[in-house]
Amino acid sequence: MKIKQITETILQYDFIPCYACQMTTQSSRKIRKSEQRQQSLVDAATYLFTSKGYAGTTIDDIVEKADVAKVTFYAYFKSKEEIALRIKRECTEEALSYVETLLSKKLNADQMIEELIADIAEWTQENWRLLDVFCALRFSPLLLERDGTATCKPEPMTICLDAILARGQDIGMYRRDIDRLQIAHLMDLAILCEQYQWVHSGREEGKLKAALERCFDFALNGVLARSVSSSTQKNGG
Fold first, then answer.
1. What is the pLDDT of residues 186-209, one digit of tens each?
2. Range of the domain at 149
3. Which among 56, 83, 52 is positioned nearest to 70, based on CA atoms?
């Protein structure tokens, strides 16, 4: 049979499209399996960091929990620090989603702060072991981009606080002559300090929420006595 006839026969019976489709399906399955293995490692590490702490978890623990070989771990992650960074990124995505949900609610600034404080306290109580991991990663060189440049993006909490301040400014509740993003960043760091202090001082029930309320009150009302503050505002100061 001539080559031309063979080619016409292949095209007639769709041999090439079928073969290509089969190859695409196999490739998709491999990608899905790879993603599943990687996610199983991330889930295992998250569970162990939460239950045993970061320092108390080894790579051997992670691969045993994920039921994969150790070589599989190193196929996706170079170290325990790198998988911790992956967990931090996933939590950041969840936090951004939370921020969008909070901002979509028809709440004033005070109501948003009240809800935010309650949610921060609840999350910290449930995930306090992860806090050490996130604190280390936040200020770690691992947060530098792989090309060596330090592109410091605002944390989700900073974004949320900035939006709350903006909402308060819109109704004249907060001053407009402030660097709003800088204030939000400082408040974010203060919240992180309160969380860290609570984790390492016995984790007493209700203490973190009270500490966060004091933190917000100080940040938003300052150190002036209320009578002095009111007098200054009346005099246009």
1. 999 999 999 999 999 999 999 999
2. 87-237
3. 83
